[in-house]
Amino acid sequence: MYNWPESQIKSLSAGLRQASEEIKQRKPDLIIAPMMGAVPLMDLINAVDCGFDNSNVFYVPAAGTLSQVEEIIIETTRNILRERAVPNRLDEGMFKITTIDEVVGGGSSVRTHTNVKRACKRLAREYMKADKPDYSPAQLDMATNALLKNRFEVKTTGLVHGQYSQTGKPRSSTYLDLVQKGAIIPVEVENLITYDNQDFCPAKYIPAKRAIGKYYPTIQPNFVITEHYLNLLKLVAAAAGNSGDVSPKNLDRIREHQKYIPEQFCPRKA
Whole-angstrom Cα distance, residue 112 to residue 242? Predict the structure, then answer.
């Protein structure tokens, strides 16, 4: 069994509560939870905030071990947006998207944030092309950019691994630039305990055939919920004053959201 200092549990609990409050204040129409890093983050947020609304949380494959990961993020997100944002929703004002992610060096949060924005741009162009079929390419570009500016907002809440700062290594310059612009909102915790540890993520990708170290974006049939994971949820919840049920909350949603992944990225059936 893992044994963490009390300060790390309290810091993680407080950071998750802060992240939850920031997300709720933003009132997003869509919350993108990149797999696999945000799978435990969402469970932990539910552990510290029993009233968190999961109905707008959608799980998108985004791990660096996926071949064509950027296209997977873009096209999976675009499929979600087709359902959630088109057609009438884009005429009602700003469509707010929040992503939540781990931040160590900053690369993964930048990857998700950037490609979710690209998905919005592809969706906006698709929408405008259907709405204005007579537009020239230049007019279509202008209309797409206007729609992006006036109808889409993408923000990222990043749970920052504080121990990384102690290494003296710099974080990604693009990440720091997005923080400076307010596009990524960092929430630092002493130790991001779940980072890069399979014991703290119930979902697992299917290994890709003939590609060592690579995976398909589809998940294995069975979830693996370890005793270590349940113990961490309980400890973090207790630090937040929650003594209720802290079991994983979104397993059905993770499985359901596999339908948004384009077939060309998934393993072929025999």
Answer: 31
Q: What are the structural domain ranges in the chain?
A: 6-263
Q: Which residues pair with 59 in a beta bridge?
A: 33
Q: What angle do helix axes 6-26 and 38-48 make, rounded to 10 degrees?
A: 90
- List of the chain residues with pLDDT < 50: 270
Q: What is the pLDDT of residues 189-247, one digit of tens each?
A: 999 999 989 999 999 999 988 778 899 999 999 999 999 999 999 999 999 998 777 88
Distances from the Cα of 138 to the Cαs of 117, 150, 156, in angstroms?
A: 21, 18, 31
What is the token pair recorded at 196? 């890069």
Q: Is the pTM here over 0.85, yes or no?
A: yes
Q: What percent of the chain has pLDDT above 90?
A: 85
Task: Give bridge partners of residue 112 from the DSSP assignment.
Answer: none
Return the structure tokens found at 247.
């079991």
CA–CA separation, 54 and 80 (whole Å): 15
Contact (CB, 8 A) for 140 and 128: yes
User: How far apart are the C-alpha atoms of 122 and 82, rounded to whole Å?
Assistant: 11
Q: 210-225: per-residue pLDDT in tens?
A: 778 899 999 999 999 9
Euclidean distance between CA atoms 42 and 142, whole angstroms: 37
Buried b (16+ CB within 10 A) or exposed e, 48-67: bbeebeeebbbbbbbbeebe
First to last CA, the chain: 41
Residue 172, C-beta contacts closer than 8 angstroms, at least 6 positions apart: 105, 106, 107, 110
